[in-house]
Design goal:
This protein is α+β, with helices and mostly antiparallel strands. It folds into 2 domains: 170 residues, 2-Layer Sandwich (Alpha-Beta Plaits); 148 residues, 2-Layer Sandwich (Dna Ligase, domain 1), CATH 3.30.1490. Helix content is 38%, strand content 21%. The protein is built from 14 helices and 12 strands. The strands form 3 sheets. It has a 5-stranded mixed sheet. A 4-stranded antiparallel sheet has the order 9-12-10-11. Strand 2 and strand 3 form a beta hairpin. Helix 11 runs antiparallel to helix 12. It is globular, with a radius of gyration of 25 Å. The N and C termini lie far apart (53 Å). The mean pLDDT is 91.
Length: 424
C-alpha cells in the first residue's frame, strides 16, 4: 500500500496552551512575550486580526494592548514543554513512525487505506487532541515532507479545509500550488526567494516545474532534492532518533543589571544546575565547561568575558559541574560593570553509557552508581513537585535578578501547588 507523509502542528501553540488551561481567554486576543517580557513572540488569531506585529517590543505596544483589551502572558516554558510532550505522545499512537520536528510540529508516516483517503483518520486525530489536550491542530498530507508542509500551510490558510488538507487527493494540485508564494515553500529562504522571483518563479508550482539544471546551478543537490519533493518523491527520510547534541547551552538575560560577585555566582550556579538536568535527560556527559557574561550591547563600554575548564572525568553530576564552574566566576567578573546576561556552555559531550576513567581520579563503579541514583532522585522530585522543589544552595533563594515574568500563568500540569481548584 502507498505511504503518506503527514505534518501535524499545533495552531498558535503557545497561545493555545494558555487557552487550554484558562478558558476565559478563548475568543479574546492574546499575545505571549519573550524572556524578561521583552517582545511579542506569539499571537492568537484574534491578535493577528488586530494587526499586532510579531517581535514588537512590549513597552512600545503596552498601551495599545491595554486599549484593545488584549490578554498578555509571559512565556511559560514549563507549560509549553509539558503540553508538547503530551501532544507528541498522543501523535505517536496514531502514526506508524513519528519525527518530532519542533516543540509544536511532527512529521508522521502511515499507510493509506485501500481507497487512499485519510480524511477520517485526520478528523479523528484532530478531535482526539482537542478533546484530551484542548489544543487545535492542523494536518497536511502528501507523498513527501515538502508536500506535507505545503498541505499543512493550505489547511490553515483556507478556512474551508477545516484544518485538514491532502495535497495528493485534491482535484487540481496545480491550482493549490499556485496559491502558495515562493517565500512560503519549505526550505526557501529570503535570498533564494529573491533569486527565484528575478527569474519569474513566484509560486510553488513554478518551482516544481522549472528547469532542474538552472536550479542545480544555484542550489546544488539541496535544490534538486527540494524540487523532487515538490514533485511527490520522498527524498527526505524521517529522523526517528535525534542525533546526539554536540553542545548544550543555558543562558538568560537578567531582569536588571547585576554588579556584585555574589549575584553573578548565583546566576552561574543556577544555569549550571539547569545544564546538568539537560545533560542527564540527553544521557550525555560534558568534558569541558565554559561560562560567560556580558553587559548590554546598547550601553557604552561594552564588556564580554568567558572562561573555560576541562573536567578530569566527563560528568553530568551537578555537584561536579558546580565545583568546576564556580571558581571561574571570579575570572570573568569585573566590578562596576552592569552585567546584563550570563550563560554556561557544556562542550565535548559524550554518551553516558560509557565512561573512560582516569588513573589519577579514582572512582569506583559503586560510587558512580550512587551519584547517578542521587541525581535521578533529585530530578524525579523536581519533575513531580515542580522545578526548584529541591534546589542547590549555591543558587540562592528567590534572587531579585531572575528573569522578569510579570504576566506568568500557572504551571498547572507540572506543579502540584498550581493545580486549579474547582469549588462545587
Amino acid at each position: 500500500m502507498p505511504q503518506a507523509t503527514a505534518l501535524i502542528d499545533g495552531n498558535n501553540f503557545y497561545a493555545s496552551c494558555e487557552q487550554s488551561l484558562d478558558p476565559s481567554l478563548i475568543g479574546r486576543p492574546m499575545v505571549v512575550l519573550s524572556n524578561n517580557d521583552g517582545c511579542i513572540v506569539a499571537r492568537n488569531a484574534e491578535a493577528r486580526a488586530l494587526g499586532i506585529a510579531m517581535g514588537t517590543p512590549y513597552f512600545k505596544a503596552r498601551r495599545e494592548l491595554e486599549q484593545q483589551n488584549v490578554a498578555v502572558r509571559s512565556s511559560n516554558y514549563a507549560l509549553y514543554a509539558d503540553m508538547s510532550q503530551r501532544m507528541m505522545s498522543l501523535l505517536e499512537a496514531h502514526c506508524e513512525d513519528l519525527e518530532i520536528y519542533s516543540i509544536d510540529e511532527a512529521f508522521g508516516r502511515l499507510t493509506r487505506p485501500t481507497n487512499g483517503d485519510l480524511q477520517a483518520w485526520a478528523q479523528q486525530l484532530r478531535t482526539r487532541v482537542r478533546r484530551d489536550l484542548g489544543l487545535p491542530i492542523a494536518i497536511g498530507l502528501g507523498h513527501s515532507k515538502c508536500q506535507a508542509k505545503l498541505a499543512n500551510h493550505l489547511a490553515k490558510a483556507v478556512p474551508a479545509h477545516a484544518g485538514i488538507f491532502d495535497l495528493t487527493q485534491c482535484q487540481s494540485q496545480d491550482h493549490w500550488l499556485e496559491t502558495v508564494a515562493i517565500e512560503n515553500v519549505w526550505g526557501i529562504g529570503r535570498k533564494m526567494a529573491r533569486w527565484c522571483r528575478l527569474r519569474g518563479v513566484v509560486n510553488a508550482r513554478q518551482l516544481r516545474d522549472m528547469p532542474c539544471g538552472e536550479l542545480r546551478a544555484k542550489a546544488g543537490i539541496v535544490g534538486l532534492r527540494l524540487q523532487r519533493e515538490l514533485q511527490g518523491h520522498a527524498c527526505l527520510p524521517l529522523t526517528l532518533a535525534p542525533s546526539p547534541k554536540q553542545e548544550t547551552c543555558v543562558s538568560r538575560s537578567f531582569s536588571r543589571p547585576i554588579t556584585s560577585l555574589d549575584e553573578l555566582r548565583q546566576a552561574v550556579a543556577t544555569y549550571v544546575v539547569r545544564a546538568g538536568e539537560k545533560l542527564r535527560h540527553q544521557q550525555q556527559r560534558a568534558a569541558t565547561l565554559t561560562i560567560y557574561t556580558r553587559t548590554s550591547p546598547f550601553v557604552p563600554g561594552f564588556y564580554s568575558q568567558a572562561a573555560s575548564t576541562q573536567l578530569d572525568l566527563p560528568s553530568n553530576d551537578t555537584a561536579v559541574l558546580l565545583n568546576a564552574a564556580l571558581p571561574l566566576v571570579e575570572r570573568i567578573f569585573r566590578p562596576h560593570r552592569p552585567l546584563a546576561k550570563a550563560g554556561v556552555l557544556m562542550q565535548h559531550l559524550q554518551s553516558s553509557q560509557s565512561l573512560q576513567t582516569h588513573l589519577m581520579v579514582p572512582m569506583s563503579e559503586e560510587q558512580q552508581q550512587q551519584r547517578a541514583c542521587l541525581m535521578q532522585t533529585v530530578d524525579r522530585i523536581n519533575r513531580r513537585y515542580g522545578h526548584g522543589a529541591m534546589q542547590w544552595a549555591a543558587c540562592g533563594l528567590h534572587p531579585s535578578w531572575m528573569m522578569r515574568r510579570e504576566q506568568l500563568s500557572r504551571a498547572a500540569t507540572t506543579r502540584l501547588s498550581d493545580l486549579p481548584i474547582v469549588k462545587a
